[in-house]
Write a structure and sequence with these properties.
Blueprint lengths: L8 E5 L10 E5 L9 E6 L4 E8 L4 E8 L1 H7 L4 H23 L8 E7 L3 H18 L3 E5 H7 L1 H4 L8 E6 L4 E8 L2 E7 L5 H11 L14 H8 L30 H18 L10 H29 L12 E6 L6 H14 L1 E4 L3 H4 L3 H13 L12 H6 L10 E2 L1 H6 L17
Parallel strand pairs: 3-6, 6-7, 8-11, 10-13, 11-12
Antiparallel strand pairs: 1-2, 3-4, 4-5, 8-9, 9-10
Bound molecules: 5'-O-[(R)-(carboxyoxy)(hydroxy)phosphoryl]adenosine and zinc ion.
């Protein structure tokens, strides 16, 4: 629960560093009669230095996020050593600021949760090494966190009463496209994932190919996905790629929950090149067709996601894994990761869920993109379940110092082959019509 707001004062502060573009809200803790249990979260798996402190009720006590997006957009993509150096430069200030705004000391913290997998190795190492140092200095336990598990369980902080296990999660970010059945904080069953690119990657590459950053602020300050969303606002989602949604890979012949986006990316890049030649655009110019292109891309991505979700739910129905517990109980879907912040995609998923009687949970955009809150919260869930899963928490100093990163870690137990072997044919649903209700 992020609220109740009356117990907290919200202040907006500017981050001091030149490359940090994002302002952030800090919820200040007031005097409490009983000292709450607190967990510090450290997230540095990609290009955001996210630090947060949460309590046992999921209250966000303090949050700091230093984003590197603007710099990476101007560089034309993330250069891993640059990302590492930026994390290293800001992490200490972010952590001290987080403690300062929470009005607590490191010795008040019950544990440090830190992302150790998956992600960019150089970036992960910054957070992991920082957590080790802090743990040694203040004698604190460390909780290693899986970045994608944290994305999947973030919604629990926002919907503590409505959302419960089991649920299906769709995680869509810069590095992942995953459908997973989640039956507990340690029970993830991977139903399908991208065999090549992720939707965020497609959007980042398309924003670069369209040279959207040349349009100036805010396009040169925001992620590729956010730029595509902004550009698509007045575009026609059916202007391009109408045939791609009937390609076998995206429709009925491959009865799987796995995704493939690389063919679509090639089609997008070919279309952009062809339009640039036809229009004789100058090298720095942005195509006048960009709004229609972006809207069409968002439609196709939504279409592919919905197709795979449809099969995932049908599989779970057949296996009776999502049985209702009451007359009012509906199947649940949690969508998270950076691309879940996209209003077009979220709107399409909302309409699909309405059509299929599924309860949809999407965290606020700030909690969909990378942040320290999701790491701190995942750490808190693990701490609360330490008796059941003692291996979640590292308390031994030697083991803490031996903690390592795993840049390519998989998510959960892989049942994707079983899902494909089930050979489930899905009923046709009119996904195009969902656009009318956006
Ligand atoms: O989860 P995230 O912050 O980092 C990773 O774990 O990858 O996701 C980052 C991705 C980027 O590819 C970015 O372009 C995309 O999320 N993204 C968006 C939006 N905001 C960020 N994609 C679509 N619409 C947005 N509004
Ligand atoms: Zn992420």
């Amino acid at each position: 629960m992020i609220k109740p707001i009356h117990r907290y004062s919200c202040i907006l502060i500017d981050f001091w560093h030149k490359f940090a573009e994002r302002n952030f809200t800090i919820i200040r803790r007031q005097n409490c009669l009983h000292a709450p249990k607190l967990v510090l979260g450290i997230e540095t798996s990609c290009d955001d230095t996210g630090i947060a402190i949460v309590d046992q009720n999921g209250q966000i006590i303090s949050e700091v996020c230093a984003s590197q997006t603007a710099l990476h957009v101007s560089n034309g993509g993330i250069i891993p050593p640059v990302a590492r150096d930026l994390h290293k430069t800001v992490i200490d200030r972010c952590v001290s600021n987080c403690f300062h705004n929470a009005n607590v000391l490191p010795s008040d913290i019950a544990a440090i949760a830190v992302t150790v997998k998956p992600g960019l190795p150089l970036s992960l190492l910054v957070g992991c090494n920082y957590a080790k140092k802090l743990s040694a200095k203040y004698n604190l336990p460390v909780i290693p966190i899986h970045h994608m598990e944290a994305h999947a369980l973030t919604a629990l902080i926002q919907y503590p009463t409505k959302l419960s296990f089991p649920f299906v999660t769709l995680l869509i970010s810069g590095g992942h496209s995953i459908i997973c059945f989640v039956n507990g904080i340690d029970d993830f069953r991977l139903m399908g994932q991208s065999v090549d690119d992720a939707p965020g990657d497609i959007m980042d590459k398309t924003a670069r190919a369209l040279k959207l950053k040349n349009l100036g602020p805010p396009f040169n300050l925001i992620s590729g996905g956010a730029a595509i969303e902004l550009m698509a606002k007045n575009g026609d989602p059916f202007a391009y790629f109408s045939r791609i949604t009937s390609y076998p890979l995206y429709s009925s012949r491959h009865r799987t929950c796995n995704f493939s986006f690389s063919g679509f990316l090639t089609a997008i890049q070919r279309k952009i090149r062809q339009l640039e030649i036809d229009n004789q655009t100058s090298p720095d110019e942005v195509l006048t067709e960009a709004p229609d292109l972006c809207a069409s891309i968002l439609f196709v991505i939504s279409f592919i996601l919905i197709k795979r979700l449809q099969r995932a739910f049908q599989y779970l129905d057949e296996k009776e894994l999502l049985l209702p517990t009451s007359d009012y109980d509906q199947r649940k879907l949690v969508v998270s990761g950076g691309c879940a912040a996209n209003r077009f995609i979220a709107g399409m998923l909302k309409n699909y869920c309405y059509h299929e009687a599924i309860d949809l949970f999407i965290p606020t955009p700030k909690l969909c993109t990378d942040n320290g809150v999701m790491i701190a919260w995942n750490g808190m869930l693990k701490l609360q379940n330490e008796k059941l899963f003692p291996h979640f928490i590292l308390r031994n100093k030697k083991f803490i110092q031996m903690l390592d990163i795993d840049s390519k870690a998989k998510l959960g137990h892989d049942i994707s082959r079983d899902v494909t072997n089930a050979n489930i044919k899905c009923e046709r649903i009119d996904i195009k019509s969902f656009v009318n209700f956006l």
